[in-house]
Amino acid sequence: MLWLLSTRYILGSWEKQVDIQIMFIIVMITFLILVIFFGVNRRLQFRGREIFELAAESVDETGNGYTHRPRPVGKVHTTEMAVLIHLASQPDGELAALPAELFTHPLARSVRSALVSAGSVAQAVAEADPESWEARLLSRLAVSEPDGTPEEAAHSLVARAGARAMEELEAELRQADRDEAGTSITSELLNLHAWVARRVDQLREPETAEVSARALVAYLRGDEGEEQSGVDH
Predict the structure, then answer these.
(1) Alpha carbons 232 and 217: distance in angstroms, whole number
(2) What share of the chain is helix, strand, coil (3-state, %, to 5)?
């Protein structure tokens, strides 16, 4: 009997101790959550007050408070990079005759002009502003190995320009249709679109690639007397 009573007393005391420990843990966790909450809230309030104080301060004007090296918009297209790599290895080669209008990215056009003007990639790097994006791209071209032939790179660049010309002609066709410009103008635009599309397709054939590339370049440059000469079948 005494053993049962002592056992119940011990078990009851142990359960009370467990309840106290659980309550203590709950209180500590709640306390930590409150500390973290108020700490974060105070930091946010302080940060917000700091931002408003900075906004309220007067601004001292500076005569040269901006960078002279604007970041180029977008990346240079792979077709333009391929031509630039070949041009860097042979600045006085046939690729130097490609017009700047074939390059859509302003940085690519600038680097192309620098390579043609300097005559070598090393000279172009030496003449470029070390802090400019042109110097960065020229330095990259100096250690890049050409992939494929210069002709293949040039034909890919011309094909991309031809695709852009087709898109522009399609936009003109849609505008002519909205304006009810007449069958003669529509027919002329359709014929021109078909001619450009045929030239772009012929760039894939070794027998007609060179002639088609020259004809497309002449058309893109606006040389009316040459734009539709050569192979046209």
Answers:
(1) 15
(2) 70, 0, 30
The amino acid occupying position 107 is L
Residue in this structure with the two tokens 């054939």, named with its chain if needed: 205
Burial annotation 157-177 (CB, 10 A radius, 16+ → b, else e): bbbbbbeebbeebeebbeebe
Cα–Cα distances in Å, from 165 out to 95, 120, 179, 217?
21, 32, 21, 11
Q: How many CB atoms lie within 10 A of CB 22?
A: 10
Helices 106-118 + 133-142 axis angle, to 10: 60
Q: Shortest CA distance to 102 belongs to which of 156, 150, 53?
A: 156
Burial 41-80 (b: 16+ CB within 10 A, else e): eeeeeeeeeeeeeeeeeeeeeeeeeeeeeeebeeebbebb
- Give the global pTM: 0.63
Positive or negative: CA dihedral 88, 92, 97, 99? positive
pLDDT digits 0-9 by tens, 31-69 = 778 767 666 565 555 555 555 555 555 545 544 444 445
* Tokens 């893109």 belong to residue: 220
In angstroms, the Cα distances linking 86 to 17, 140, 151, 194, 211 are 83, 13, 10, 31, 21
Which H or E element spans position 67?
none
